[in-house]
Design brief:
The protein is α/β, with parallel strands linked by helices. Helices cover 38% and strands 15% of the residues. It has a single domain, classed as Alpha-Beta Complex (Spore Coat Polysaccharide Biosynthesis Protein SpsA, Chain A). The protein is built from nine helices and ten strands.
């Protein structure tokens, strides 16, 4: 059977005991929990935890989320039914944006609070820690960056399991960092426009106002923003949409 290491970057917040309790309630009894609180950002902590881990598969979850009891058993089914798999992602359920309980279930978003990656594959190319900025920016885009890298290196050998839900009751703690956003976009232009632009008004505005887009890219962003405005009538019209 697949052996799992649950890896958590934590600030030892008040939500942390609930996460630990959810791991202990797993119907699968063979696992280890590695929590690291000794790094400049959560991705550096996760990378250190991955080096320490002994499991074949690293299960990443945040310290303000909880696993449902069957989470690891579900991952066993995914990995054992597809021996070629190297990574699995899943959705989040909760009030993550302060606007009520929602299910965030987007294939290919690679949300770091619900990812599982084979350890050997992860160690080939772990989470981006600094983006070459000479600092350790908090909580932004390194999870999607890792997922996109896996897609590129192992095409067809990953899946998004919509039944593998992680509960995230409170608001996201990720920090928007314009420098990281620009580097992430420049690294993954086509995937960014395909997956984030249709549903992310902040990303749309960021691209239109700050990035040197091709004519085709700009047309796609403008079209997506106009479409999004149908459901968000308060979304402002930008001069760059003209």
């Amino acid at each position: 059977m697949v052996r799992f290491s649950v890896v958590v970057a934590t600030l030892v917040r008040g939500s942390y005991p609930a996460l630990v309790a959810s791991v202990r309630r797993q119907t699968l009894r063979s696992w280890e929990l590695i929590a690291r609180a000794d790094a400049g950002n959560e991705y550096l902590a996760r990378n250190r935890g991955a080096v320490q881990a002994r499991g074949e598969v690293l299960v990443f979850v945040d310290d303000d989320a909880t696993l449902r009891p069957s989470h690891l058993h579900r991952l066993v089914e995914d990995f054992e039914s597809r021996p070629d798999l190297v990574a699995v992602s899943g959705p989040l359920q909760g009030d993550m944006f302060g606007s009520g309980n929602i299910l965030l279930d987007h294939r290919g978003w690679w949300v770091g609070a619900n990812m599982a990656v084979r350890r050997d594959v992860f160690l080939e190319r772990p989470f981006e820690e600094t983006w070459g900025l000479g600092r350790t920016p908090r909580g932004w885009r390194a999870d999607s960056d890792l997922g996109f890298s896996i897609e590129e290196r192992y095409p067809g050998r990953w899946l998004h399991d919509s039944e593998l839900v992680v509960d995230h009751p409170g608001k996201m703690q990720s920090v928007w960092d314009p420098e990281v956003e620009a580097l992430f976009f420049q690294r993954w232009r086509s995937r960014y426009i395909e997956r984030f632009v249709p549903v992310d008004p902040r990303g749309q505005q960021f691209l239109l106002e700050t990035q040197d887009l091709t004519a085709d890219e700009r047309a796609k962003v403008v079209s997506a923003r106009r479409e999004l405005r149908r459901n968000m009538p308060g979304l402002p019209v930008l001069p760059q949409e003209a």
